[in-house]
C-alpha cells in the first residue's frame, strides 16, 4: 500500500489539490466532483451498486468518495451496512465528515487506498482525468488501483471509466478514455471468472463488476 502511494505521490497530490479547489468553488455538489449533474451521478451509482448481492449486513469501501454522495444513495436503498469513504482530498473528507456527522455507520479517511478490508469496494470517476499523464501512465495507475481494490474487497468490487467508444467529436484531451474490452479481459484473467461489463446506460462510460463468488 505504501509503495503504491509513494509511486503515484505526484499525481495524487495534483488530484487532491484539484478536487479541493472544485469543492471550494462549487461546494458539496456533483459539480464539485466534476460531474455534469446529479442525474448522471445517480445513473452511475445505479450501475455500481449492482455488485452488492444482499439488502443488508454488508460493509463497503468507497474509493474517491468525495463528499459522501454514494452513502446517501445506499442509505435510501439498503439497510444496516457500514460505509468507509476514502479520498486524497482532505477538504472533501472534511466536508463528508461534517455533512454526515450524525451517521454512526459511516467513516471517512484521507487515503489513496482503503485502510481496511470490506465486503465490497466501489470507485466512481477516479480514472477520468489525465492531469497531464499519457495513456500508459493512466493505465498504470488504473491497474495499480484495481489491485488494491481486489486486495481490500472480500466479495467483489466495481468501478467505472470513460470509454474509447465515446463520440470522437466530444472527446477531450484532458480526459482518459479506457478500452472496456481490454479491462474486461484483465479482470477476468487477474481477479475472477465472474466479471460483468455494463455499457448500456446511455453515458460515455462503462462499469465493470468483479464478483469473487458466483
Task: Describe the fold and architecture.
The protein has 214 residues and is an alpha/beta fold. The chain has a single domain (2-211), classed as Vaccinia Virus protein VP39 (Rossmann fold). It is 37% helix and 21% strand. It contains seven helices and seven strands. It has helices at 2-7, 9-26, 38-48, 69-75, 90-99, 135-151, 180-190; strands at residues 59-63, 82-87, 106-110, 118-123, 153-162, 194-198, 205-211. Strands 3-2-1-4-5-7-6 form a seven-stranded mixed sheet, with helices on both faces. Helix 5 links the parallel strand 2 and strand 3. The two termini are 28 Å apart. 39% of the residues are buried. The mean pLDDT is 89.
Number of domains: 1
Overall shape: it is globular
Number of strands: 7
Q: Gyration radius, to the nearest Å?
A: 16 Å
Strand order, largest beta sheet: 3-2-1-4-5-7-6
CATH class annotation: Alpha Beta
- CATH fold category name: Rossmann fold
Compute the number of helices: 7
Please give the alpha-carbon distance between the first and last residues: 28 Å
Q: Provide mean pLDDT, rounded.
A: 89
At the fourth level of CATH, the homologous superfamily is Vaccinia Virus protein VP39
Largest sheet: 7 strands, mixed
Task: Tell me the helix content.
Answer: 25-40%
| Unreliable segments of 5+ consecutive residues | none
What's the order of the H and E elements? HHHEHEHEEHEHEE
* Beta-strand percentage range: 15-25%
- Determine the structural class based on helices, strands and strand pairing: alpha/beta
Architecture (CATH level 2) name: 3-Layer(aba) Sandwich
